[in-house]
Design a protein that fits this description.
The structure is a single chain. This protein has 263 residues and is of the alpha/beta class. The chain has a single domain (15-209), classed as Rossmann fold, CATH 3.40.50. 29% of the residues lie in helices and 21% in strands. Strands 1, 2, 3, 6, 7, 10, 11, 12 and 13 form a nine-stranded mixed β-sheet that branches. A two-stranded antiparallel sheet has the order 4-5.
Length: 263
């Protein structure tokens, strides 16, 4: 066990959960991949091209599980959707695992797409709008999303507690979603997932960070994460008081060291 894992075990009950948010190509996978030096890691890749992300270059192939709907091709009239069930079974099986210290889900955004596929497959529909009861479909998606979120964060208290890190894509909130009285989500960005669970997902995790990129003539391009509490971006660190730093290097160890040192 690494020194950092020892420190986290001494300070916190169970594992920690971290959600890193940002547009594609801004360093989310790099942050997740930075845990490799600290403990045994399983990557649950939910999109084939994530396996080749730079952040996972040191991860052995036997520590990567790829889950996606290979048979989902509506344009070819193929509606095979097994990925969501496969993912949920894996998450429940990991409750009994005694090997892994870290579980990475990248991108978690696509797990919700798998849930949509499972719902739409029953009617061979390409979208919820094509279904007989689209409102019922969104209700089913909320139910599946809640079950998924619980299965992910429950790994913090597995037989061998896991540190769970997930990456999710975000998009700017539309103007009609920022202050409309029927919309409860508030903020500048929205998780790029369908349904009302996007209002809840940030509350499921101990830590919510956003990736950011800074550039200067002296230092070049730097990939960082915003760690300052920011309600508009739903940034938070439940494990520590507000940190003095606004940003930190895009590295799990550096972020956790700052949290452990916080007074």
């Amino acid at each position: 066990m690494s020194k950092l894992l020892d420190q986290l075990s001494d300070r916190f009950y169970g594992g920690i959960s971290l959600l890193v948010c940002g547009p594609p190509g801004t360093g989310k996978s790099t942050l997740l991949g930075s845990v490799l030096e600290h403990g045994k890691t399983l990557l649950v890749a939910l999109r084939p091209n994530e396996i080749n992300s730079y952040g996972y270059r040191e991860l052995p192939k036997d520590q990567i599980t790829l889950i996606y709907d290979r048979g989902w091709k509506p344009d070819l009239d193929k509606f095979v959707a097994s990925g969501f069930h496969e993912l949920m079974v894996l998450l429940y099986e990991l409750q009994e695992d005694e090997i892994y210290d870290f579980i990475l889900l990248d991108p978690l955004t696509d797990a919700f797409v798998l849930a949509q596929h499972e719902i739409m497959a029953k009617e061979k529909a390409s979208t919820f709008q094509d279904m007989k009861n689209s409102m019922g479909a969104y209700g089913a998606l909320r139910h599946k999303s809640i079950a998924l979120g619980k299965a992910v964060t429950d790994l913090q208290f597995a037989k061998k507690p896991k540190h769970v890190l997930a990456a999710i894509h975000v998009q700017p909130a539309k103007e009609d979603e920022k202050g409309h009285r029927e919309v409860t989500y508030s903020g500048e960005v929205l998780p790029a997932i369908e349904g009302s669970y996007r209002e809840l997902i940030a509350g499921e995790f101990d830590i919510v960070l956003h990736t950011t990129i800074s550039r200067s003539f002296k230092t070049g391009t730097s990939y960082e994460v915003e760690v300052a509490t920011n309600a508009k971006r739903h940034n938070k660190i439940r494990l520590a008081p507000a940190l003095d730093e606004k940003t930190l290097p895009n590295d799990f160890g550096r972020v956790m060291e700052a949290i452990l040192e916080a007074k």
